[in-house]
Give the backbone structure.
Amino acid sequence: MTVGPLKVGIVYDAGSGDWDPKDVKAVLQNAKSVEKALRRGGHQTVLIPVRLADVQWLTKVQRCDAIFNLCEGVNGIARYEDYAVAALDLTRVPFTGCTSWTVTIAHRKHVANTLLTARGIPVPPFALMDRGTVPGHLKFPVIVKPSGEDASVGIDSGSVCTTKKALKERIAKVAGMWEDTLVQEYVPGREVNVGFVGSEMLPISEISFEKMPPGSWPIVTYAAKWDAGSPEDLGTVPMVPAPLSAELTRRVGLVARAAWRLIGQEKGYGRVDLRIAPDGQPYVLEVNPNPDISDDAGLSRMAAARGWDYPSLILRVLEEALERGARRREAEAQYLKLPV
Ligand SMILES: Nc1ncnc2c1ncn2[C@@H]1O[C@H](COP(=O)(O)OP(=O)(O)O)[C@@H](O)[C@H]1O
Ligand SMILES: [Mg+2]
């Protein structure tokens, strides 16, 4: 599909007064790098901050030919991202990234895991917990995580529990801070990420834990993701493409694609996180809709391994949105008698 110059709105969370200036800067930097890539593709751009209780932004959206959605929340509240995407869906303006269904489901890990399990896609056994109760059917070690968060929020070296006592204390702690608490069997073994743009799978990435401080669990904690230079950051090294055998590449690809098809509907872009058990069975940890798409994030590294530089990734994501938008308009013209 060749695309003429368009007016593309870049939608992002305006944040709230108590935001760390570091976070504000990161969001704006991401918006600026996307803007630069779109302009290199010949498009005009307009930055559209999203705020709660002020729908002016939707009027601006309505004046654009397409939207690049970078909203990861509204006023810093992650679950309001679902509402922002649902509002975009109602405008009929083509927008990048996942649909409101996908974003809403994937942001509740217990709901996504239930669907994946029902489809026979391997997910480590899990339970949705209430304060203080310890599940009987799960084998130790287990990991405790907030079900409605992402970006390793609530995950540190104490998340993996090996005793009932430690688990009870951890559940009480996590349940006291977040709404739903997930307890899941811990899968030892390699960790891989599989990126998708529409139906296209990108080269697999692996996280090497070889340099983790001795004695710590090989997991991607909050510090590993956000505390640059910390021992956990230095101990989690991405490798793209992952040095997997042909057979493991095939097995991981099959499971990741099945998960992306079910939860992501192969629309927008996403990243499936998996662990490979020592017997070679890949398990889905989560499907991330609209993962970080800044120029130094995992998805950009995977795209680079596919031969797409950053502007090519951004333009490909836009193109996928336009193709999807056109298909939708055709369907609505047929069934709802709306103009194409
Ligand atoms: N069942 C599990 N077995 C082993 N490690 C896990 C498991 N669940 C989560 N982890 C570790 O915790 C990290 C964060 O968990 P994940 O489910 O991907 O949530 P988030 O949305 O915070 O990224 C993973 O990257 C992985 O290292
Ligand atoms: Mg993850």
